[in-house]
Amino acid sequence: MILARAAQATRRYGDVVALDRVDLDIQAGELVGMLGPNGAGKSTLLNLLVGLRRPTSGRVELFGGDPRDPQRRRRIGVTPQETGLPPTLRVGEVVDFTAAHYPNPLGKGELLDRFGIADLVRRQTGGLSGGQKRRLAVALAFVGRPQLVFLDEPTTGLDVEARRALWDAIRAFHAEGGTVLLTSHYLEEIEALAKRVVVIGQGRLLTDGTVEEVRDVVGVRRVSLVADDLPELSNVVRTERDDGRIHLLTTDSDQLVRELVGAGVAFSGLEIRPTSLEEAFLTITAAGPDAATNPIAA
């Protein structure tokens, strides 16, 4: 069942094309991670899907209808990149106010416990740290027992411990049948949480598939070795040096090793492995929309 859909969705701001003919379906039960550099169009797409903006052309749907319909929006939870919390209200009061908009909200104690902020219930939001405010903002997305949650950079500003606690809460929601679409600058976060990855660049959808498929779509492998010097090698996308080791991103690892042996290079500690999601992401976005691979069928 498709819960959210963008079909040839385009959004312009004057002469600027923020989103360019994007097709995306979010199925019930998915946990989808969206990657892209700043200005790629991630937040614009989320704003269209939740009804905060309308597409210039194309269409978007939420639960099969108009995302601006309050009945449909009541079935979602949203944490935008920036959240304005009333500074004089206490955390518990903010939760109560938000919960009043839903017919069957999650209990305040259960919600705050789930997100590790029960000890803040009496604190005014104006006195919270940036990380505490962010955890509250994410928690509020779940207060209405949503079927579908949109999280835009949910762990920005959190320390490692708080980030991993939030991951556990998102995983628990997904394990209970919830659907999640999240954006993140933390590639580790997408790799840890997402079952499906969407890469957006310059307003275009570049790649759509599993983490493994996104790695494979660029056809790049990482070859690491120890050597004093290397000759000119073919099919090398990028070269890095770290702690005496040389790391080569290559589109043909077998050919690269043959070239090393054929050139008589003395090397040791040879390792060949798939690219990380970060390396795949950098390769895909560097190519840009004109060179983008056709999206993988999810």
Structure description:
Helix 8 (211-217) packs across helix 10 (277-287). The strands form three sheets. Strands 5-6-7-3-8-9 form a six-stranded mixed beta sheet, with helices on both faces. It has a four-stranded antiparallel beta sheet with strand order 11-12-10-13, with helices on one face. Strands 2-1-4 form a three-stranded antiparallel beta sheet, covered by helices on one side. It has helices at 42-49, 70-73, 91-99, 108-114, 130-140, 160-175, 187-193, 211-217, 253-262, 277-287; strands at residues 2-13, 16-27, 31-35, 57-62, 76-79, 148-152, 179-183, 196-201, 204-209, 221-227, 236-242, 245-250, 267-274. The chain has two domains: 2-214, P-loop containing nucleotide triphosphate hydrolases (Rossmann fold, 3-Layer(aba) Sandwich); 220-274, no CATH class. By secondary structure, it is an alpha/beta fold.
Write the layout of secondary structure elements.
Elements: E1 2-13, E2 16-27, E3 31-35, H1 42-49, E4 57-62, H2 70-73, E5 76-79, H3 91-99, H4 108-114, H5 130-140, E6 148-152, H6 160-175, E7 179-183, H7 187-193, E8 196-201, E9 204-209, H8 211-217, E10 221-227, E11 236-242, E12 245-250, H9 253-262, E13 267-274, H10 277-287
Parallel strand pairs: 3-7, 3-8, 5-6, 6-7
Antiparallel strand pairs: 1-2, 1-4, 8-9, 10-12, 10-13, 11-12
Helix pairs in contact: 8-10
Which ranges are low-confidence, i.e. pLDDT below 50, for 5 or more consecutive residues? Answer: 291-298
**Beta strand count:** 13
Strand order of the largest sheet: 5-6-7-3-8-9
How far is the N terminus from the C terminus?
14 Å
- Major sheet description: 6 strands, mixed
CATH class of the largest domain: Alpha Beta
Count every helix, treating DSSP H or I runs of 4 or more residues as helices.
Answer: 10
CATH topology-level name of the largest domain: Rossmann fold
Instruction: Write down the overall geometry.
Output: globular
By CATH's scheme, which homologous superfamily of the largest domain applies?
Answer: P-loop containing nucleotide triphosphate hydrolases
CATH architecture type of the largest domain: 3-Layer(aba) Sandwich
Order of helices and strands: EEEHEHEHHHEHEHEEHEEEHEH
Helix content: 25-40%
Class by alpha and beta content:
alpha/beta
Strand content: 25-35%
As a whole number of angstroms, the C-alpha radius of gyration is 22 Å
Total number of domains:
2
Overall pLDDT metric: 89
